[in-house]
Sequence to fold (569 residues):
Amino acid sequence: MDDEAEDVSVTVTGFGAAPNCHFSLLNVDEHAATYDAAGLDRYTSPGAGAITPWWNRTSTALRDIAAGSELYVDYGPSWFTSREGHFQLVPLASSYEKALEFLKAYGKMLVGTDSPDDLVKDKMMIGDEVQKDLWDIIKTHSYVSRERQALPETHKDGIRAIKAGDIMTVEVENSIRSLEYLEEHGKCVDNIVPQQSTIPHAGRGAFATRVIPKGGLVAPAPLVHIADKSKTKMYAETKGPTGNIIRDEEKVVHKQIILNYCFGHPNSTLLLFPYSSNVVYINHHSTEYNAKVRWTNDFDFYHHKDWLEKSVDFLEDQWTAGLMLEYVATRDIQPGEEVFIDYGEEWQKAWDEHVKKWEPTSKESDYNNLTWWTEKRETGNGDPIAAYELNNDQDIPIRTWAEQQTNPYPHSLRMRCYANTNHDAAYLFTPKTTPVYRRPFDEDVDMAMDGEEYHMADCQVRERYERGEDDSSDDSSDDNEYQITHKYLYVVEIDVEKTVDDVTSFHEHYIMTDVPWSAIKFMEKPYTSDIFLKNAFRHEMKLPDEIFPKSWMNFSEEQKQKVKWYELW
Fold:
């Protein structure tokens, strides 16, 4: 996904957007999304590029999770350390280790020994009320830190943590809600699942998993508010006063794909992005819709009803989400039935106009020449053409550079290899010749993470040979998540650009042997996927007039005309 463009920002809807992060209670592991355009392509469908091809980001339990437990995922320490305000005090994993050290010292102060078993009333050196007062001082002292925030909230829980030998035990117990509480106060998020839509060119749709009675909840939809919809515009580039590249404010080339997943209104600059599980798959039907949206009325701890009376300028200053819609059935919906809402007359008109003007990409105009590859595969003479197809098909050998001279891969693809090109050699001056490094692939070194990213570089396959029966670089090792059985190993070549004194650049050349299939990945070249097509459909859904607050209608007549002109363009 990072290779879709030069600078990628991603928002992920669904289950993964709901859990918080608690470094002592992490119980959910998140996995990468899958690339699949749901059968839409630039040669056959006006819906090409109108949906994100990235989907199916799954999450699994890291350990047994008791019913009623809150779910927590790992945001990564930098998510908090890079932010200001109260995020600066969110405890990290190391914070709990230091907090536990403090608790042990605190317990020893109370009873004079290191034994947690001595933490009983008749052995305490100070009374209960004094202990509570002391704990209040510790928790409310003007000096704040992540470590202090990691301490249990109450003195009673502090003692429990000392006796248990860890803070996690106490935090887990405190994070569990009864099933009766969840039944009364929670909202069901598994009433719908994504499948291929019954609507042509729509991609995926949302389908009921059970009977949803008329007036019943289809799904909750917490919202991210975007005060200025012009932020979704994409601009051409131009040179600035100093020769640097800047965006050309006069040349709008397209809009961000997130627009298609937002609610808006013709008389407002505001966009509302719903990020609950699977609601982004709910498609449009102007006559056969079976659901609608309304403001939630029983989630006051999250949904700020007073915001419906505030201005868009007020919302722009709110840096956390605080609004929630909910999808409700307008009639009984049966299991397996696709759920639809009405996106509004403006959306329908825009889509009809798009379909009327849409023309399939031709071989001559396709700068990626993907038409030729599609035709080749359809005649049974070609291999998979998209990066995700090649990465998922372990039976097909990867072509060498020589083979690609007569049987090339699509021009839209590039080959990347896991390769750690950092080494101990230091350059005091720029080498006059290209340094060459030859070594075997080392999974522990080459597939290790560098901070939050992997070491990867553009590469080219020079040789391919069958692996031996006892080959130690077997992709199908017990540690390999996918139990790969690819029969070949590869020799790859890599050119890496480096610098001396951060100014002068030079190249290093790597020849790596015994490279497994799993260490070679195909990726789309930047700006080549269908979402970057200039004729890809873009339009927000309309939040109905009857529920759109008048205080948010901030478009002047002049602004309305500008928007109409752009849409016509």
